[in-house]
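Re: the 290-residue chain
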Amino acid sequence: MKPAPFAYCAPDSLDEALALLAEHGEDAQILAGGQSLVPMLALRMASPSIIVDINRITKLQHLEETGEALLVGACVRHAELLRYALLHPRWRLIADALDEVAHPGIRNRGTPCGSLALADPAAEAPAFAIALGAEIVLASTRGERRVPAEAFFLGIYETAREPDEMIVAVSFPVPYPDWRFGFEEIARRKGDYAIAGLCAGLRVEHERIAEARFVFFGVGDYPVRALQAEDMLAGGDPTDTDLHSAVATATMDEIDVSGSVEYDAAYKRRLVGVLARRVLGQLAATGEVT
């Protein structure tokens, strides 16, 4: 199929792009990597009146780490962030997750911020954003605001972004050295959409778990933290296999799982337990982040 007719604009400045969003609202779509938007246009699943191409806005191409945070601009590609994360072990979770995003051609054009904006339940970026305590940086002609990643995703392809807003960046706080991170996803083939996945972290002090984050994706309408499982882990020994089994069982009961035509809810619930055991095994063997 061919897309429905639309106007096209490629502004050179953020102010110009935001003015277009303010004018057109829900009738506008933002183009950055286009790896989701272009197929949706072709299938007429999206029919905007105007496409706002933000690739000329140099302000959105920055990838910068300070002592406090890693700031990833809206036009930074998956591949660029992946290369950076591979060189800096403290961002191991990002590297492990991005390595599973589709295939090299997609990663060379697609963007983490675009993935956050789309909010596909099976996408990796929303899950690792929550696991790392990231903030989504939104801008409009009304100003800028930051939304914690955990509060940003509201449902399937539904977020807290207003129609006149744009994600201009995502900010990841630099993790303390006592955090350990693990990642696992289950897919039919590498690069396929995840059937189920888990981004997790443990903060270990004096060989005891001081804090835990368990974020499952691909099993419901949006990524979700397993809060009860996190509470169970607090104070425990990260190498305790009995604790691992108990937590895996608890996650199967806690997580609200949605089935599909291909994979029913019972199957996905079993995957939740499998993922919990696998990732806890990773975390038991992982040293401190440097």
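The CA atoms of residues 90 and 289 lie 5 Å apart.
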